[in-house]
Automatic annotation (TrEMBL):
It is found in: Membrane. It is a multi-pass membrane protein. It comes from the Bacteria. The keyword tRNA-binding does not apply. Signal peptide: none annotated. The chain crosses the membrane at residues 12-33, 45-62, 138-163, 175-196, 208-231, 252-271, 328-349, 369-388. GO terms for cellular component: membrane. It comes from Pseudoduganella namucuonensis. One of its GO terms (molecular function) is chloride transmembrane transporter activity. Keywords: Membrane, Transmembrane, Transmembrane helix. This is H+/Cl-antiporter ClcA.
């Protein structure tokens, strides 16, 4: 058994190095992402090149990235069954692939990129410190936490995400200190580089009553079903493309053509991160089908092989779905948008604790009781299949 002081000193050093690497990588990524998004908005014609961009990224991954194509699932698999150090090329490949996706107009997120960069960079320290398998597991978890925390500006949620995402029904408390320290320091590193995160204001939280609790639970069920449907649809789209299109670069080419045609018909409301629409959901009624539009664009983009992440699109889907449910449940738009923002993610990723803490960090402590109920209800109703197929099931959600 390692003495507590030795353990603290060891992991303080390692977690701080992980945080410096992940926080710096996330800061560079976020600045580049802002530039790519701004360029696309000012040059809307570029979406017509999305099929060619998808083909190029698909060819690069086929040529150089077969070993790392699994992305987040590769990291989770390595934590469960350590085999070999994650190749460093995962970081530049996913960074470049995600920037191309956003520059040309795919509907993808950003958390996958930050998490994969954090995990890949952290794992290179395995050689430096000659870490054993058990320590390497903790190292990778710290990298995941640091990447998540630094890309969203939610250090506590990032720390818990790294502990919670591996398995349904189980937390790895042996990694709690490295994950906490790595997430907190990585967030501070990003802020030191000048990163600024979007935080959404909810002016007034209604008092807890029997009706508000019942309405929030009902909304949580809807959010969980939406998260489950998103995970199943994304996996099904990916499997369909692999069955029907043997040559991998052709998949994003076809998906990109479909997205570009949809943008021509419907406009660009459902591509990219969609942060302006998320902000709108907290202030005014939106079209009740906005969540479905983002859902479809993201499933096609991710299912055909574009790189990025699922979480920010899930925030969009949840916020706009909550906005649509607010009049039906007689609750304020900002409250339901905020609850949907975190609860659809909780259901799709099977991470109710991290999602609840994220609500506290983004919206303030007053939303805590409602966020906890919505996230847990979403988790219970989202089934046992989430967006990360490498996630294991340690316990059933509702007991035996």
């Amino acid at each position: 058994m390692i003495p507590p002081l030795t353990y603290l000193a060891k992991w303080s050093l390692i977690a701080s190095l992980v945080a410096a690497l992940a926080g710096t990588a996330s800061a560079f990524f976020l600045f580049a992402l802002d530039g790519a998004t701004a360029w696309r908005i000012s040059h809307p014609w570029i979406v017509w090149l999305l099929p060619l961009a998808g083909f190029a990224v698909g060819w690069i991954y086929l040529r150089f990235g077969r070993a790392v194509e699994a992305g987040n699932n590769l990291l989770i698999d390595e934590i469960h069954d350590p085999r070999q150090v994650v190749p460093l090329r995962l970081a530049p490949l996913v960074l470049g692939g995600t920037l191309v996706s956003h520059l040309f107009g795919a509907s993808v997120g950003r958390e996958g990129t930050a998490v994969q960069m954090g995990g890949a960079l952290a794992d290179q320290l395995t050689h430096v410190f000659r870490l054993r398998h058990e320590d390497r597991r903790i190292l990778l978890m710290a990298g995941i936490s640091a990447g998540f925390a630094s890309v969203f500006g939610t250090p506590l949620a990032g720390a818990i995400f790294g502990l919670e995402v591996l398995a349904i029904g189980r937390l790895r408390y042996d990694a709690i200190f490295p994950c906490m320290l790595a997430a907190i320091v990585a967030d501070q590193v990003g802020l030191a580089w000048g990163v600024r995160h979007a935080h959404y204001a909810i002016a007034a939280i209604p008092p807890v009553t029997a009706w508000t609790l019942a309405a929030v639970l009902a909304a949580g069920v809807a959010f969980g079903l939406a998260g489950m449907l998103f995970a199943k649809a994304t996996h099904a789209a990916g499997a369909f493309m692999k069955r029907r299109v043997a040559y991998a670069p052709l998949r994003p080419l076809l998906g990109g053509a479909l997205v570009a045609a949809a943008v021509w018909l419907l406009g660009d409301r459902y591509i990219g991160l969609g942060l302006p629409v998320i902000a709108e959901a907290f202030h005014a009624p939106l079209a009740p089908w906005d969540w479905l539009g983002k859902f479809a664009f993201t499933v096609v983009s991710l299912g055909s092989g574009f790189k990025g992440g699922e979480v920010t699109p899930l925030f969009y889907i949840g916020a706009t779905l909550g906005n649509a449910l607010a009049p039906l449940l007689q609750l304020p738009f900002p409250l339901l948008a905020g609850l949907g923002f975190v609860a659809v993610f909780a259901g799709a990723a099977n991470t109710p604790l991290a999602s609840t803490v994220m609500a506290l960090e983004l919206f303030g402590p007053a939303i805590g009781p409602y966020a906890a109920l919505a996230c847990v209800a979403a988790y219970l109703f989202s089934g046992h299949t989430g967006i990360y197929h490498a996630q294991r099931r340690e316990h059933r959600k509702t007991g035996a």
